Amino acid sequence: MEQVLLGLAALVLSGLAALVLQRAAKLAALVATGGAVLGSAIALVPVLRALTGGEAPSLHAAWSVPYGSLSLELDALSALFAGIVLVLSPLAWIQGVGRLVALEGKRSLGPPLFFQNLLAASMVLVVIARNGVLFLLAWEVMFTASFFLVTFHDDDESVRDAGWTYLVATHLGTAFLFGLFVLLGAGSQSFDFDRLAAAPHTPVATGLAFVFALVGFGTKAGFVPLHSWLPGAYPAAPHHVTAVLSGAMSKMGIYGIARFLTLLGPPPAWWGWVLVGVGLTSGLFGIISALAQKDLKRFLGFSSIENVGVVALGLGVGVIGQATGHPVVAVMGHGGALLHVINHAMMKGLLFLSAGSIADATGTREMEKQGGLLKRMPRTGSAFLVGAVAISALPPLNGFASELLIYLGAAREATLGSTSTAVHGLAVIGALALMGGLAAAAFTRVSGAILLGEPRTDAVGRASEPSLLAGAPIFVLAAACLALGLGAQVVLEAIAPALSLVRASLGFATGPLAYVVVASCALLLLVALLATLRLALLSGRRVEAAGTWDCGYVRPTARIQYTASSFAQPLVELFSGALRTRRSTVLPAGIFPKEASHATETPDALTEEVYRPVFTAIRSALVRLHGLQGGRLQVYVLYIALTLLFLLIFQL
Amino acid sequence: MSPATLIPPILALVLAPFLLAIVNRTKAAFAGRRGQPWLQQYYDLAKLLRKGAVYSRTTTWVFRAGPIVSLAAVLVATAIVPLGGARAPLSFEGDIVLLAYLLGVVRFFTVLAALDTGSPFEGMGASREVQFSALAEPALLLGLAALARLTGKLSLSEIVATISGDPRATWFAEGPALVFVVVALAIVFLAENARIPVDDPNTHLELTMIHEVMVLDHGGVDLAFIEYGAALKLWVLGSIVVGLVLPVRTGAVLVDALVTVLGLGALAVATGAVESSMARLRLLRVPQLLVGAGAFSALALIFILMPR
């Protein structure tokens, strides 16, 4: 445990040093990033030991804060999430160095460097905290650090808006977490996790606690309908920060739910239904909305919503397995969910980082303006393709292994269970199948639009590869996607302690994965063989270059290519009921039409339909209270004094 | 893995192109023509494999990798599919999911290779392909899930062996449900293999095609890989359908396999008959057909889950 704390101290102190050194931007970046790499490496050693079944180190100390105690523990579940943070964040910060240093002179770089390291440290603290007050403190520090990173480009109005939405949404979510701890801690007068778990609770209280946890943590994870901050905040943050927000920070929400599932005792079946309902809505809404997006990072943000949906489906299957006494189903559901957490962190990190390089090189995140980048940025583009294949859950990469486990758990429910359990499993299978097909559509669309074909603008045509430093983290993550795919069985066995379930059932889950590895290796081998065959056949023959077949059209331009919007149009039309696509069209008119145009934009449907009207109403109702907020410090001090006086009288 | 399990993939590798010949001869017979020679597909493949190549300047390695990865994925899929009572060499719990996602790999790389050309025609075909396959996916997996529920097995070889091994407990007892599954899978079979009523392999207008337009720019060895892969895909999905409707089990693996091969021939004749007797659906109608297939799968599940 001391080693973990040492690592965290290295993170925070190097961040502070960067704050002090910010006049010398390069030095500050070197210190902060070096500290992040060093601190993460130090902390990663005990984390990996704890993850693979070693002793769970812990630390308990008194703390002067009421109800607070310095209780820390690094069990396998904590280690799994801490590991994700400690692997992904240094890679992302390394990639970001160049991007930040390029802003030298325009912005002070101390704060982002400091908040980056603080964000990583606070996320680790979140997963090792074992006291409610400490946990909420870490949770708030995590939010604060991420908030200042999201609003880094605060000269842009849309970024300020996104930051504001993020602030409000997060605190509404955190309010539920306060409720959660008060609800569970009320009886035992303590917020220590082990006391929360040990205290007796009525089924109603436990059920309410589950709902509070789902809402509070679900806001951070980005479950629909609590996701409205996400499509704005992800694109607003600097590119490498978004990779961590999606890859690691949204997983803190999943961690919270998984942690409270272990604390709240044996779950009733309805939790499984709720989780599957949430997963189904998030998954389908996320991927359908993603299909309609044109901003690369917004698209990836919606895809993150889909993937936390997949995780929720897995947790739902696992909970039903626990509730109905099928440990095999429980292992497959929870195992698939946790494996997907790891996989998604790696592949979404990869996608956001390579998308960041692409956006830097082309100066735009708009996919309709890109194209042909695989020729201009072959390394980054190929890495992006690896991520696209992985996230579409295609073998032999890692996304398939975790989704297969969830499928297997659901299929077991469908074949073995009672009618209601079977329906539960079948809903998961149907949803995963549709999401899989749509994800493939979404990722072929985006890969095609940005990487393939011809560049649609001159700026994109001049794009080139980023520096080796910015490129290296991307390759590490791409390699991780392949390794996690071929090593899925090993990884699942390694993280098994985090499942805290019957170990004996593990074989049912690892057995099929072993076969998948065989099939994946066969696939790779066949690809190599066929590629060799093709080369052998073509050697010595005429291989010519020509133009693409244009059907006899004499003047093809890059603008006749199918765009991302036209590619997705049939599907967007099919699901128009769930989207709020705005169209503005100028039709050609007259005998000699001069101009014609067509533009579409798809904002988040729920924000448009629900949150905006509700918050507008609240705003107009509360505007009368503006008088209280004069902006004079003395008045505010008076308010505090009055509140304290009131509380004192109330106490008497 | 016993040597007998190698019979289904070997038969598939050798005979798959022949299915296309049967489809074409059937269509010729309907049209009053003599049709192409029985071995025409093999001649075509041999000729394509002897050719050089022409690549568009727009394309990258993705265009060259597309046919290779697609064929490799279909080949692995071939190892999962049994022929009636003859088990497949690769059989494990959940292989049905792997099968569906291997077909997903085929599609993903075909679509990417199409988009790599920058051709608007191929983009259009790719767009249609991903739309239709996204809708066919739930129909396929829910149909297979229905079979899993019916048999209590999660591997395709086991499922087909159970259904063909004990028709009394399956077809007699659960006839209606099985009919629905077969209809759903037959629609998926036609859609995934780019046959009428979803797609027309014979049209010569790029604007109306789906699968064929995506491979417009491929030639020579690449096209041979694609054509052979398409034939194998026809065989793979066809043998699932036939394995269900032909519950014949003699005990001799080779006989079981050959009976299923004859069944596949009959399926090819039926495909040719469908293709000769109806027109391709309007593109806007195709999603309805595919959602209908999903509904058939769901209906089958309701029949199976209904308490009796």
**Would you list the SSEs of chain B in sequence order as H and E?**
HHEHHHHHHHHH
N→C terminal distance of chain A: 44 Å
Per DSSP, the total helix count of chain A is 24
What ranges of chain B have pLDDT less than 50 throughout 5 or more consecutive residues? none
> H/E order of the elements of chain A?
HHEEHHHHHHHHHHHHHHHHHHHEHEEHH
Spatial extent as radius of gyration of chain A: 26 Å
- Uncertain stretches of 5 or more adjacent residues of chain A: none
For the secondary structure, the number of strands of chain A is: 5
Number of strands of chain B: 1
**Estimated helix fraction of chain B:** over 70%
> In percent, how helical is the residue content of chain A?
over 70%
Q: What overall form of chain A do the CA principal axes indicate?
A: globular
Mean pLDDT of chain B: 91
Largest sheet of chain A: 2 strands, antiparallel
Q: Based on helices, strands and strand pairing, what is the structural class of chain B?
A: mainly alpha
